[in-house]
Design a protein that fits this description.
Blueprint (H helix, E strand, L loop, with lengths): L3 H5 L1 H6 L11 H11 L4 H8 L3 H15 L4 H10 L2
Helix pairs in contact: 3-4, 3-5, 4-5
């Protein structure tokens, strides 16, 4: 099954009304997203932020729900391109 972004392309995703609202994210979720944006693994992000890897996974689930994304990469793309 293709995702909307693959089917319509990144330029059309914005046109149909997707919007990344950084205020939806908690400060800690923003920190997790920033760490992952730097290319750090979940384990590395957990070590960097002094939390467990399970907490990272929980924060990622929250990020995906709040940004209506299917993957962390899609969330990062939206953060960069749909502000």
């Amino acid at each position: 099954m293709m995702t909307l972004a693959k089917r319509r392309g990144p330029a059309k995703v914005e046109a149909i009304g997707y919007h990344f609202d950084a205020q939806k994210l908690s400060p800690r979720e923003s920190e997790v997203l920033s760490a992952l944006e730097q290319g750090v693994s979940y384990k590395g992000a957990a070590h960097q932020l002094h939390i467990t890897i399970n907490t990272i996974r929980a924060r990622v689930r929250g990020i995906l729900l709040k940004t209506e994304s299917h993957s962390i990469l899609e969330s990062l793309w939206r953060r960069r391109n749909l502000r």
